[in-house]
Design goal:
Elements: H1 6-16, H2 21-32, H3 40-44, H4 48-63, E1 66-72, E2 79-85, H5 86-93, E3 100-105, E4 108-113, H6 117-124, H7 129-137, E5 138-143, E6 146-147, H8 155-168, E7 175-179, E8 186-190, H9 193-219, H10 223-227, H11 231-243
Antiparallel strand pairs: 1-2, 3-4, 4-5, 5-6, 7-8
Helix pairs in contact: 1-2, 2-4, 2-9, 4-5, 4-9, 6-7, 9-11
Pfam family, one: T4_baseplate
Protein name: Phage baseplate protein
Organism: Streptomyces coeruleofuscus
Length: about 240
């Protein structure tokens, strides 16, 4: 992590302690996109896949390329541990198609906007998230030349829309399919990068605060003075404290 950003990310962590997971994801996305200047509406208007790509890029910048992931086999319960490449995910998910998806199916013609972060957040609060997402993101729906409501779309058409949306914005649904080394069966699981990154940031922040406590006790330095030290120099000073 860049030296000048330690205090900023510590503040982000502190703010995120008292908010829901969706709020933490927004905080992390704001940290990943300083070019947006913390503009909440601008962040919420970005496609979901863009947010995921940004968060993978942030994870790479903060903690490196390699991500250690643990997953329980759905078939035999074995604990599986494997590595993912944060940089590769960031590059792959940044490659998106046209945000306006067009689907033609059995007399139906649909224009569908790939979901933005705000759409997904709002739909998650609805009793029927799928219906809510369709209602927000279907731009036009026509059957045999006549405009119709998005609520009337049959399941087959909804499935085609979902497939087209995934192709246009693959980062909107990052799902892993991992073969178990014990039984050979595959396990599918969603990779929630916001939750994964928050867990890492939380561990980093608590370790850093312990470093601050130890160095402040040993040398009488203030928190800003300690955070201004490079991680390498902090480690050397901590080693000196341990030797005393």
């Amino acid at each position: 992590m860049a030296i000048t950003q330690a205090a900023e990310f510590l503040a982000t962590w502190e703010t995120g302690l008292d908010v829901a997971p969706a709020g933490r994801a927004l905080l992390l996305h704001g940290a990943a996109r300083p070019d947006l200047g913390g503009d909440r509406q601008a962040l919420l208007s970005l496609p979901v896949g863009q947010r995921e790509a940004d968060l993978f890029a942030l994870r790479r910048a903060l903690f490196g390329e390699r991500m250690q992931v643990r997953l329980e086999c759905a078939a035999c319960g074995a604990d599986m541990e494997f590595e993912l490449d944060a940089g590769e995910f960031a590059r792959t998910l940044a490659d998106r198609g046209d945000p306006l998806v067009r689907v033609a199916e059995d007399g139906w013609e649909i224009e569908f906007r790939v979901p933005a972060v705000a759409d997904l957040t709002a739909a998650a609060r609805d009793a029927d998230p799928r219906r809510a997402l369709l209602s927000r993101c279907v731009v036009t729906a026509v059957r045999d030349g006549q405009p119709v409501s998005a609520d009337t779309l049959p399941v087959a058409v909804q499935r085609r829309i979902a497939e087209a949306a995934r192709a246009a914005d693959p980062g909107g649904d990052v799902t892993l399919n991992v073969a178990c080394p014990e039984c050979g069966e595959g396990t599918r699981a969603e990779l929630d990068i916001a939750s994964f990154l928050w867990t890492e940031l939380d561990a980093w922040a608590r370790d850093l605060l312990l470093d601050v406590h130890l160095l402040a006790t040993a040398y009488g330095w203030s928190e800003p003075e300690i955070l201004a030290l490079s991680p390498l120099r902090r480690r050397y000073y901590l080693e000196l404290c341990a030797d005393v």
